[in-house]
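Possible race condition, two jobs.
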Amino acid sequence: MSAPELIRIVSRDSPMALAQVERVRAELAAAHPGVVTEVVPVKTTGDRWMGDLAQVEGKGAFTKEVDAALLAGHADLAVHCVKDVPADRPLPAGTTFAAFLERDDIRDALVHPGGLTLDRLPAGARIGTSSVRRVAQLAVSHPQLRCVPFRGNANRRLAKLASGEADALLLAVSGLRRIGRADVISDILTPEAMCPPIGAGVLGLQCREDDIGTIDAVSALDHAPTRRETTAERMLLHVLQGHCNSPIAGYATTHGNGDISLRARVFTPDGKTVLDAHEWAGPLDPATLGTSVAVALLRQGARELIDGIPH
């Protein structure tokens, strides 16, 4: 089937989201030179709300309006940061992920105006972040630091840092690179030091299931190893049924022989309890690997831990 003449792409209207759309447009142009793309920006509940996400549908607050535009036929393709797409429930009925772009850096970065690394920050330093995942892990590794709530897009957070509302920030390496601000990074944390969120560094391209033309066109952008890693990670989160206030972290890795492994951790918000599981796929398919790692965590008490966190 020939590619559509026009593909309308819906996305959040933040600078980072629009930069992500430009990557998709470039890859589509390379794969299908005759296709014209048009951007349909929307402002989501998550972008407007600066409080606790649990009060506005959790991570779904970043996807609801985008999903609605796609389902209503106002757009043909949605671009999502997979880490922001809830995995405890299926995608909206009638939609599917047609492609996952090749994964970017999954690591977290420290931004400190004086160029200090995380380990050199003085006791009492204020770290700007609203991520329960980051807060829990810092409580384990750097209990002498203090986390202060920071919401908003990356540019807004950098502006808050510049105005003195925190001493340092934790942000995604991939996000800073997407908006051209890798220059502000003072320290990059290993996945072992700061386990990343499910779907870190992955852009997912969502289409309506009945739009075969767009699905065929977009599928040329799919990166098979990233799809396998993302499938394992999202199945892990689906089985755990984690909510937006539960500190869950994990990442799959594709190894030289093509096999994948999956490491995952579940924390209490104060970091005092840490559950850890790590398995290799071997003959398992990615979804089975995700299920197996989730079951290993459930056997350690993950269900009680997650259910015990208010949300």
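Job #2 (started ~2 s after job #1):
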Amino acid sequence: MERRTIGAAALAVGAVGLGCMPMSWAYSGSRQRGDESVRAVHRALDLGSTLLDTADMYGPFTNELLLGRVLKERRQDAFVSTKVGLLVGEQHIVANGRPGYVRRACDASLRRLQTDVIDLYQLHREDPEVPVEETWGAMAELVQAGKVRSLGLCAMGARGGRRSGTHLYDGTIRQLRRIQQVFPVSAVEAELSVWSPEALETLVPWCAERGIGFLAAMPLGNGFLTGTLTPGEGFEPDDVRARHPRFTAEMMAANQPIVSGLRRIAARHGEGVTPAQVALAWVLAQGRHVVPVPGTKQERWTTENARAAALRLTAQDLTEVGALPPAQGSWD
């Protein structure tokens, strides 16, 4: 697989990563099977999808434990990205960016992952009660201690409302400027897909200008862009899509033209090319510093996603994707 670099340290990863969250968090709990997920991770590494993206809060903790089963055997094949800064309670999630907690959390993640070093350690969310510079400084100390190789910022859920004259990620960029003064940012993770392209306005170019890697989360639109979901089929209560404004039966039907457009482009590239692969190839085309991180828990989809790295979209393809209707949601 093509290799791409993350950050000033030029850390090399496969062009398509693997989001591990669905294996133990947020998606269809009844379909989560540890052995099947372990096979999916092995398959990803076999195909060159070396970036494995997890977090201590997924499960909580069980996602890192699952990856540890693979890393115990294949640490040299993987680029491990995990996150810190969020605590999961019974019915809530709270931020914790206190330096002492960051240090303890890192040690716990290392134990669960069965490794001596984390390749990319991301701040999952800023703690409003702790200056972000203090949190970032504690993370920088982990690099100096040899426990972490590089640092990143996760901007998921941090977009905020759009006001006149502002862009969706202006707050994120202000935060990035602050922490850059403390220690270099190697990567930023935020949502980017055919139906959620907002990061292209400012955040993706900002990262490109500074040699910062961009990890594209949810590049398949929570599965919608694969064309495998049926409107009205419903989701399990613990599935995040059960409460998502784009996944009501009405909105899924209204957004089908997006999938139809991806399917038309896929058909031009030959038998076996899928809408999901077109969606991933579009993300890859947004810059050499961009690495899509599609989430899955099945070996079958891991294989399909990894093979998207070899798909090259034409100028006509990219124009057609750009002309697709914007996604609709029940809250719009």
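The first strand starts at residue 3 and ends at 6.
Logs attached separately.
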